[in-house]
Amino acid sequence: METLNLFISSIFIDNMVFAFFFGMCSYIAVSKNVKTALGLGLAVTFVQTMTVPLNYLLNEYVLAPDALVEGVDLSFLTFIVFIAVIAAFVQLVEMVVEKFSPTLYNQLGIFLPLIAVNCAIMGGSLFMQQMVGAGEINNFGQSVVYGLGSGIGWWIAIVMMAAIRERCTYSNIPAALKGPGIAFIITGLLGIAFMIFSGIQL
Amino acid sequence: MASKSLKNLTAPLSGNNPVIVQILGICSALAVTVQLKPAIVMGLSVMVVTAFSNLVMSLLRNGVPSRIRIIVQLVVIAALVILVDQVLKAFVYDVSKQLSVYVGLIITNCIVMGRVEAFALQNKPWDSFLDGIGNGLGYAAILVIIAFFRELLGSGSLFGVRLIPESWYIAEGGVYSNCGLMLFPPMALIIVGCIIWAHRSFNKDLQEK
Predict the structure, then answer these.
(1) At what angle do helices B125-155 and B185-202 cross, to 10 degrees?
(2) I need a surface site. Which of A6, A45, A69, B137 has the fewest CB within 10 A?
(3) What's the first-to-final CA gap in chain A, in angstroms?
(4) Which residues, 6 or more positions from A166, have their beta carbon under 8 angstroms from its beta carbon?
(5) Predicted ipTM?
(6) In sequence order, which residues have a C-beta less than 8 Å from that of residue B198 and are 6 or more positions away?
C-alpha cells in the first residue's frame, strides 16, 4: 500500500515538471510535436527507472556514513558519483540500443545523449537520496517504483504539453508571446491544474 | 578593457539572456525564487560555477579530444559544484537547506554546459571567463526579478522584511491579503512567461514568426 502510494504521488502530486520544474530545458525545446515528445518521454522513463535504483545501491553501500569504511562519511561525493553513473549509463544504453535495435536507435538517436544532462534524471536521484533520509524510501523495490513513477510523470507532462502546443499553432497569439512565452504560461496553467491532486492519499 | 571583452560581459544581460532568450537553465531558476535571499545566493553560485568552468575548459580546450569532452566537462563542473555546495553549507547553512537539491542540479544546469560547449571551447580563457560571468549575471537578474514579485505579492515582504503594514490585513480589520498562489510553483512559470512577453515586445527582432 505504501509502495502504491509512492507510485501515485511520484506521478501526479510530486510531478517532476509541475512541482519541481525538472527537465524544463528539454521539456520546452522538444514539446513541439507529440511524436518526438513520446520518444523522449519513453527514453527518460527508461533511464530514470534504471539510474534511480543504481544510485540507491551506491548511496546505501558506498556513500552513506559508515557504509564503506567504518567512520568515514563519503556523502560529499554524491554529486560526482551520481552524475558519473548517469553519464555512463546513458552511454551504455546508447551502445546497447544501437547494437540490438537500430530502428529504436534511429527514433531516439538524438535524444539519448541529451538525457545525461536532463535535470529530471539527476533530480530524481537526488530526491531519492533525500527521501531515503526522510524514511519514505526504505528498500530497493521502492526505489525502482519511485524511478518508474517519476519517469512516467515527466512523460505524461511532455506529451500533454506537446498536444496543446500542436493545437496552439492555429490560434492567434500576440507576436511577442509566440514560442517560449506562451509555452511557459501553458505549463503554469497545467501546473495549477495538477495542484488538484495534492493531498490525495490511498 | 577592450570593447569586445566588454560585449562578452554585457550581451547576456538582455539581448542574449540565457534564461529568457536562450531558454537554458530554467529547471533550477524557478524553484528557488519564492524569496529573494535564496534567489540571490543561487544566482551567485551559478555565476561562480559558469565562470570557472568556462575558464578551466578554455584552458584545457586544446588538450581534450572531442570524443571524451562531455565527460571531462561533467567532471570539472561537478567538482566546482561540490566546492560551492561545501562553501554554502559552511557559511550560509539556512539558505543551503532551502536550496536543497537545487545546488546539486547546477551540474545539469544547461547554462553551464551550454556556455562551455558554445563558447569556452572556441575562445581564449579571459574572454571565456567574462562570458561566464556575464551569463551568470543574466541568470541572476531574471531570478531576482521573479523572486521580487513572488516574495512581495506572496508574502508581503522583501528579504524577509515586512513591507505591507500588519494593519492592512483582513485578520487585523484591513482589506488586504497576500496572494497565496504566488508561493506555488506554477506562478513562477507564468511570471517567466510575462517577462518574456515584455522583453520581446521591446526587442522585436527576437519575436518568432
Answers:
(1) 120
(2) A69
(3) 8
(4) A32, A33, A34
(5) 0.80
(6) A176
For chain A, say whether B188 makes contact (Cβ under 8 Å): yes
Query: Does residue B105 sit at the A interface (CB-CB below 8 Å)?
Result: yes
On whether any CB of chain A is under 8 Å from the CB of B163, the answer is no
Interchain CB distance below 8 Å, A113 and B27: no
Cβ distance A19 to A198 under 8 Å?
no
Reduce the DSSP state of residue B176 to 3 states and report it: strand
Domain housing B92: 20-200
B189–A25 CB contact, under 8 Å: no
Q: What is the pTM of this model?
A: 0.81
Report d(CA B5, CA B128) in Å as an integer: 9
Q: Do B101 and B28 form a contact (C-beta atoms < 8 A)?
A: no
- What's the number of domains chain B is made of? 1
Instruction: Copy the grid coordinates of residue B110.
Output: 544547461
Cell of B103: 545546488
Q: How confident is the model over A36-95, as pLDDT tens digits?
A: 788 788 888 888 898 999 999 988 888 877 777 777 777 778 888 888 888 888 878 778
* Distance spanning both ends of chain B, measured CA to CA: 37
The alpha carbon of A168 is separated from its chain's Cα centroid by a whole number of angstroms, namely 25
Query: Beta-carbon neighbour count of residue A26 at 10 Å?
Result: 22
Chain A residues in contact with B187 (beta carbon < 8 A): 188
| d(C-alpha A169, C-alpha A154), whole Å | 23
Helices B36-60 & B69-91, crossing angle to 10 degrees? 140
- Identity of the residue in B23, B101, B207 whose CB atom sits nearest the CB atom of A28: B23
Nearest CB neighbour to B110, from listed A25, A80, A123: A25
What is the phi/psi pair of residue B8, to 5°?
-60, -35
- Asked whether residue B46 is assigned to any structural domain, the reply reads yes
DSSP output for B85-124: HHHHHHH-HHHHHHHTHHHHTTTT-HHHHHHIIIIITTS-
Grid-cell match 554529486, residue found:
A79
Is residue B15, in this structure, part of any structural domain at all? Answer: no
Q: Is residue B183 domain-resident? A: yes
B200/A177 CB distance under 8 A: yes
| pLDDT tens sequence across B28-78 | 767 788 888 888 888 888 899 989 998 988 888 888 887 777 778 888 888
B67 found inside a domain: yes
